[in-house]
UniProtKB/TrEMBL annotation:
UniProt name for this protein: LLM class flavin-dependent oxidoreductase
Coiled coil: none
InterPro entries: Bact_Lucif_Oxidored, Luciferase-like_dom, Luciferase-like_sf
Domain Luciferase-like span(s) in chain numbering: 29-292
Gene3D superfamilies: Luciferase-like domain
Cross-referenced Pfam families: Bac_luciferase
Lineage: Bacteria, Bacillati, Actinomycetota, Actinomycetes, Kitasatosporales
Secretion signal, residue range per the UniProt entry: none
Length: 339
């Protein structure tokens, strides 16, 4: 029997796709294999993180295009694409193309804000317009307009043998309803709701009205739904770091516990000038994690999750964690695998 009156309806996972600089293909292949495994285990969705100038996935649309040809059912998401690095029109073309190739399975997640270390990278990223670039919600709104088929030019017609459209092509019907916003503040939650997006919540939030992580995240979810046209039916996915140990070896359990302990101090109080709060990583048996989740105020408000895989583990660790999530933890939360 599920441990909560609202059983988990959609089960997803999130990976950063780490690779070795000397052998990047091996790391990318591992990511593809992990997502293939997720589909076999019945997961409803797989999500990839986005990392620029680091040793993680820098081009999620390219990776998910490859995944789309090696899977047939699992939904594919980005969590999240930072829009400060992107041209909204060009990104809309890439997203629509991958959605078409996947048969309508893409769930793009994006976020606003300036690129990390912008002063150091702006000369390469925006050499002629660095001081004029807008990195707020307006950039996300432009992407939404492009994805949803709004006109982007006042010309359409034929020139010689070439035919031109006045909106982004290909146009992917339904993709506009599958756009997600990765928000960690009340303002972002409200904006996402007002613009009809879905909301991705993660293990990081901004401490605005409280220093209790679950309480903060709950306020974001309720603010989002209060401003969304769909109200309480608006989609929200939670993305905590979850590491079940049911079938882990003693060595794996020790590794997982060290990882969580090293990251635990940052969860005690708000961090930095932005007062960011981090959720503790959940490591333990599926029974233990299920009990902790069902007592989490924000988890009780959602029916979808994208459990985040830790950054630095090995391929065989991810296989064990995903298998335990799908066969032990998620069923304890009321989830049933897709056929």
């Amino acid at each position: 029997m599920p441990l909560t009156s609202k059983p988990l309806r959609k089960l997803g996972f999130l990976t950063i796709g780490l690779f070795d600089e000397a052998d990047p293909r091996r790391g990318h292949e591992s990511t593809l294999e992990i997502i293939e495994l997720g589909e076999r285990l019945g997961f409803d969705s797989a999500w990839v993180r986005h990392r620029h100038l680091q040793y993680g996935i820098s081009s999620p649309t390219a990776v998910l295009a490859a995944v789309s040809q090696r899977t047939s059912r699992i939904e594919l998401g980005t969590a999240v694409i930072p829009m400060g690095w992107e041209n909204p029109l060009r990104l809309a073309e890439d997203l629509a193309t991958v959605d078409i190739l996947s048969g309508g399975r893409l769930n793009p997640g994006v976020s606003a804000g300036p690129p990390n270390h912008y002063d150091q990278v702006k000369g390469a990223l925006h050499p002629d317009t660095a001081d004029a670039e807008e990195f707020g919600h307006e950039r996300v709104r432009r992407l939404l307009d492009c994805v949803r088929g709004e006109r982007v030019t006042d010309f359409r017609g034929v020139e010689g043998f070439e035919v031109f459209s006045d909106r982004v092509q290909p146009h992917a019907p339904g993709l506009g309803r599958r756009m997600w916003y990765g928000g960690g503040s009340l303002r972002s939650a409200q904006w996402a709701g007002e613009h009809g997006m879905n909301l991705l919540t993660s293990s990081v939030v901004k401490a605005e009205e409280s220093e209790d992580f679950a309480e903060i995240q709950l306020s974001h979810i309720r603010t989002f739904r209060a401003h969304h046209p769909d109200g309480d039916r608006a989609r929200v996915s939670q993305g905590l770091v979850v590491v079940p140990t049911d079938t882990a070896s003693p060595e794996q359990r020790a590794k997982y516990e060290r990882y969580a302990q090293q990251r635990l101090p940052r969860t005690a109080t708000p961090q930095g000038p932005a007062r960011m709060m981090f959720a503790p990583d959940l490591v333990g048996t599926s029974e233990d994690i299920a009990e902790r989740l069902t007592s989490h105020a924000a988890f009780r408000e959602v029916e979808e999750v994208a459990f985040a895989l830790p950054f630095t583990f090995d391929h065989e660790d991810y296989v064990q964690i995903l298998t335990d999530i799908a066969t032990e933890l998620a069923p304890a939360l009321g989830w049933r695998p897709a056929p």
